[in-house]
Amino acid sequence: MNSQSKRMTFYKKQSIILSLFAIPQAIVYVIFFIAPILGGIIYSFTDYNGINKKLNFVGLENYRAVFSNSRFLKTVMFNVTYSALLVIFIVSLSLILAIILNSSLQGKTVFRSVFFFPAVLPLLTMGLVFNSIITKGLPQLGANLGFESWEISLLSKPDTAMYAILFVAIWQGLAIPTVLFLAGLQTVPRELEESASLDGATAWKKFRFITLPFLVPTITMVFVLTLKQGLMVFDLIMSMTQGGPAGSTESMAMLIYNHGFVERRLSVAMAEALILAVIVCTVSFIQIVWSNRKRIY
């Protein structure tokens, strides 16, 4: 057997061994990811309620019921508004923080540790803590100080409940995007900035024409992650308002939970979940394609 044949045999054995190691992960992936998705698609075309074993095929009836339900359309509007505000604040504030932390600021190491702390806390726990602060702490403080506007909880008013939740989401969600932007800033060639400075470029022009183009991939990543977080928001709403008051903060994920586990309409919940998944994937795909056209290689 020549050396080439020996190498081919060796590589073939290596491929078989690597494939054997991948089999357990593939099985777990199929059981806990692929199978639930396929099951959800199938159940969305039935009248499954989680109790009766007998299934009746209803075709597109569940999807028709979803799109004709004003409650679902209201949750879509909530998600769109909430996600848009979350993306705007997270992207802009985290970029500003990253630029500040990337500069020669005194004590920035300590500041990095402090601002990253909220990211390690579970959203559900944070929601419960802020729920107690907003519903009990602030009204009591307002009563003691004589501020009547503080005596009514922000979470009890339909006009302000979403913004209270949004504040908590921004406070918790700034850390990781800031770290991503800090990493993105390291990819900007220093020689370009130095050349621009020698040519008399202002700080804004250097940011606009040098830094920002190199940050397009990072901006895209932060945009997609934040958008996904906004469209699928559940933990904060569950722990702070449960969708109230008067359904003003009921998100699509919260509606899916209510239909599936409270009202026992699992087939409708499956249809809503698939619609939400399609929305998230579509928006993310459009943003990624657009950013690839703006990428600098």
Automatic annotation (TrEMBL):
Keyword Cell membrane attributed: yes
Membrane topology according to the record: Multi-pass membrane protein
Entry keywords, A to Z: Cell membrane, Membrane, Transmembrane, Transmembrane helix, Transport
Subcellular location per the Swiss-Prot or TrEMBL entry: Cell membrane
ABC transmembrane type-1 domain segment(s): 76-287
One Gene Ontology biological process: transmembrane transport
TM regions (residue ranges): 20-45, 80-101, 113-134, 161-188, 209-227, 268-290
Protein name according to UniProt: Binding-protein-dependent transport systems inner membrane component
Entry GO CC: plasma membrane
Family: Belongs to the binding-protein-dependent transport system permease family.
InterPro entries in alphabetical order: ABC_transporter_permease, MetI-like, MetI-like_sf
